[in-house]
Amino acid sequence: MKILIAGSGAIGTVYGTQLAKHGHSVDVLAHGVRTEQIQRTGLLTADVISGVTDDVSVSVVSGDSEELYDLVLISVKVDQIDSVCANLRQISGAPDFLFFGNNPAGRRGLPDDLPGSIHLGFPGVGGELQGDRVAYMRIPGQPTTLEKGNGAYLKEFSTILKAAGFPVAQTSDIDGWLAYHGVFIGAVSSALYRCGCNATALAANRDLLTLMCRSIEEGFRALEHEGIRGLPRNLRILHQPALRTFAVWYWARAMKSPVGEHCFAAHCRHAEPEMQSLAQDALQRFEHTERTENLRLLFGRGEVGFDSPPTIPRGPEEATVTDETKATKGSESDPPASTNSARRVPTDSVADIDHIVGHWTDLRREGVERQVEAEAERHQFLENFRAITDSVIRPAMQAAVDRLGKDGGGGLIEERGEAPMHRPRIILWMSLDGNIAGTPRQDLNPYLQLDADVGRRRIDVWEGDMWEKEGASRATSPLELGDVSTESVTTRILDILRRAATHGVPA
């Protein structure tokens, strides 16, 4: 594909690098100092989790370039869309335009006079420019999101990302997805601005996290009442009133982790106009919507002061208990106290219903909490598997391929990202004599296969030493993530090759 990147901040740089790294021709639209630097250095990235760095060469072109592009990736802030589109209206041909970022208005907020088809999506990484290099990480629980039914070039884009270890999800309602995400990131950014964009400080402020979670709940509920669809499943589960305590704990933990800095705080520091735009969009949209007082308080931070602690409005179910009521209320398990021992207290014949329903509610809440926590652990395992694949497994396999080629043999690496009914997988196929012709097979080629077993949080290992119609294929002992090293992967490869080299030898 021939691709133009319009917007070479953190997102454009990361995705442009992956496209170029996988053999596609990438140009960057000129726009000032940043692209002057790219003209000198190319696109430079560093994965802060795995430590893997990538450097790729690209061309910087002006808006009046006559190049024909298949895909134009527009990765600019929402307040910059109009200005960048002014440079794209004269583009040659009819490419696919992928608007790739915050845009709660969806297609309504985009120009309709671009010379090609319009598509929407959202990145699954966060990061910032550090010197000449973008430091980034993949966001746990947030895959790169694209709309279903895209054209051939968008499908190829998705395939490239999956091959690179970037999870990809598709939604049938990307406009709704972006509206919900606008509320979500508007609440998170507004909370961070109250803490000076310090994620660790936000993690320690439970009152502010509670206000943030209440605001998200209110915004989601208001959009649902408007009939807006597309709410991501993980956010729907996490942000419901019954799980608010868990959500506060979850975000406190996230904000203390690298996710807080690289995926949220860094962007807030560099994109305050965009974050203000998201907050204002929500305030205007819900101006007359009932039960959005927490959202209006948090998003309207200019009215209450940048650093002032919020006073959280409480619903009737969480009214403050006064000293007087504490004195008379007792524990919830105690029977109501009588102020007149002579008064007869009537028996409530259906009181057990309260306990039955309460017990069911507790069980349901605990079940959802376990589900959310398991989902978080699942995404963390997948993120760790991708990181160790990038930093250890793939380089060790590539070293074996290179040496086999040098010695007259051959090899190739096959990868598969997560998909319905399929686990993430990486396979090294090998040949002792020449390159691999056609499709490699377990009954023909020595191989080492590593599968991410998400359910058991381990790596399942399959290996085979078939060569010259001799040998075997088998499952071997699984690996824990902590057991994977360059030495352990290389040792398994050498053992497979030693066994394969004993086959097909004349007696």
* Overall residue-averaged pLDDT value: 85
- What is the strand arrangement across the widest sheet? 5-2-1-6-7-8-11-12
User: Roughly what percent helix?
Assistant: 40-55%
Shape by Cα distribution = globular
What does the main sheet amount to? 8 strands, mixed
- Strand proportion, as a percent range, falls in 15-25%
Q: What's the β-strand tally?
A: 17
First-residue to last-residue Cα separation: 52 Å
Describe the protein in words.
The structure is a single chain. Helix content is 43%, strand content 18%. It is built from 16 helices and 17 strands. An eight-stranded mixed beta sheet has the order 5-2-1-6-7-8-11-12, with helices on both faces. It has a five-stranded antiparallel beta sheet with strand order 13-14-15-16-17, covered by helices on one side. Strand 1, helix 1 and strand 2 (25-29) form a beta-alpha-beta unit. It starts with a strand and ends in a 7-residue tail after the last helix.
For the structure shown, list the relevant keywords.
alpha/beta; 8-stranded mixed β-sheet; single chain; 5-stranded antiparallel β-sheet; 507 residues; 18% strand
Helices and strands in order:
Elements: E1 2-6, H1 10-21, E2 25-29, H2 33-41, E3 43-47, E4 53-56, E5 59-61, E6 71-74, H3 81-86, E7 96-100, E8 117-122, E9 125-130, E10 133-138, E11 144-147, H4 152-163, E12 168-171, H5 174-194, H6 199-204, H7 206-225, H8 233-238, H9 244-256, H10 258-270, H11 272-285, H12 293-299, H13 301-304, H14 323-329, H15 352-406, E13 410-416, E14 425-431, E15 447-453, E16 458-464, E17 473-479, H16 486-500
Parallel strand pairs: 1-2, 1-6, 2-5, 3-10, 6-7, 7-8, 11-12
Antiparallel strand pairs: 3-4, 8-11, 9-10, 13-14, 14-15, 15-16, 16-17
